Amino acid sequence: MEYITRGVCGQEGCRERRYYLDNGLWFCRRGHQQEGRQVEEDPEDFGTQGRTSRVKKAVSEKSKKTYTGRQAYRLFLQVYQLILWKQCYALVHTRGFPPQFEDVVRDLWALWLGTFEDKIKELGDDDEPEFFSSQATTGLDEEDEAKKTKGRKAKWPRLIDCIALWYLGAFLMRIPVNVADFHRMVLRDEVPYIRVVRIVPREMRDKLPQEFISILETTKIPQPEHIHSAVSDFVLFYHGKFDMKFPALNWPVLLYRFIKRLALPIEIYPAVKKLQHLLGFTFEYPTRIIGRRMPINFPELQLIALIVIATKLIFPFDRRIRHPCSAKEPAVQVIDWGLWTQIQGHFDNRETARGKLGKGNEIKVSEKDVFDMTPSQLDEYMAWYENSWIDTNRSLNPLAELFPLGPGAGASRAGTPSVEVDEEEAIDSMVQIATGQLQSRPTIPDNESDSDTKRPGSYYTRYRTEEYLPENARSFYEVTAKVVGVSLTTLLRVVLQAENKVTRWLEEQRRAELFGESYPVYNEESPGEMDLD
């Protein structure tokens, strides 16, 4: 008899594992009939036992999970456009930008988008994506390609180009917003930028190759100087490709904002206007670059350089006593630079002084900082991490509800409105304290002065590098560099170049007095521009 080995019988403690078939019924070797096991044999179906029949399924075409070639590039541009629209929407509805701002940025994007059509046509359907960085690769002092004078060649958008488009949109609408303002919005997460891929729908993200997703990831904090460079590249591109004319910087309003933020006396305003006329600054972006790109060609840096020079002329950092001729001169006032430094420090630490981490500081936290953080700061950091890095579009695990993460994004942000000090009120308070501490110095008329009398503007000091900065000057330069969005080294270089222009103007005035000749004001766009270090 033929036996088949299976599981344990189990009836009446039987441990038999061998079975045989008898008249369609299964029995173990010891004779226990197995319930539920029956085989009916049909003589007409002789020889069909063991045959397997499978139901044919409908043929469905399998689609690729990720796109390649032209499809991938077109989808990337669509995703980039979606991100740009969401960012503009946040600027309008959160930051109070005018509704027309979206239309201006959309038109700028449409012009740039048209340049990618020819490049997409050159690609094949299965071409692999090119590897390129999402971060800015050019600095303020790097050498530019010759092609940039005729318009920037078409290249794939970087994430930092979004900020440049915001700035140009505000620039065209004469909105007094500078590069540092947009940079601060990014760090404070007021505009989607950090981990921006989280706002892209899952269906679109799944079809993008990883190379494109890496472009939209923020691997490092964007630097304001890179934003300045990106804006300059766009101006060259739009002018060279479409002959677009950009207006001058809305410098009167921006000048007032800079003076107010630096808590300087209002007498700086007319002094800057005189220096601007003297040096011939137009506060316009250059439409062509000869030689190396220089930071002094950027309108915001021209304006901040004039503010620094005017401050050094009227309110010097040294302790020399200079006597003005009359009480009507702006130099009759004296700034206590030590007190000014303390006021600026209190303004910068207005949030952290209350025991909070401070908006915009979360992304700067390192491993070492965690050990010194208080429980409330840890909660604030973890809430920011949840809002910025956890993907809410991904399908949740059924067990995720058993491990709640705490309050959501809206609750964590809306729960601390009283802690955030209004920036405008803080600036007004800072200006009131700084101007209230101004002192006056004695005046000496011309008929009472002698050869030893020092006048305002005398003993003017120029600083080439950071090593030469005294304590008070370093504090002022550092705060000013942060306000305009450049490094301390770049600000020193820009101010030094502007001071050299003033020196050349003085020399030309002396020649005119001696020889009766007049010399034109030196233009910063002249081909003979010196590259001073």
UniProtKB/TrEMBL annotation:
Keywords for the protein's UniProt record, in alphabetical order: DNA-binding, Initiation factor, Metal-binding, Nucleus, Protein biosynthesis, Transcription, Transcription regulation, Zinc, Zinc-finger
Positions of region (Disordered): 38-57, 436-459
Localization terms from the record: Nucleus, Nucleolus
Organism in which the protein naturally occurs: Aspergillus heteromorphus CBS 117.55
Identification of the protein by name: RNA polymerase I-specific transcription initiation factor Rrn7
Family label: Belongs to the RRN7/TAF1B family.
Annotated Rrn7/TAF1B N-terminal cyclin domain residues: 80-201
Presence of keyword DNA-binding: yes
Regions that span the bilayer: none
Rrn7/TAF1B C-terminal cyclin domain: residues covered: 220-389
A GO CC annotation given for this chain: RNA polymerase I core factor complex
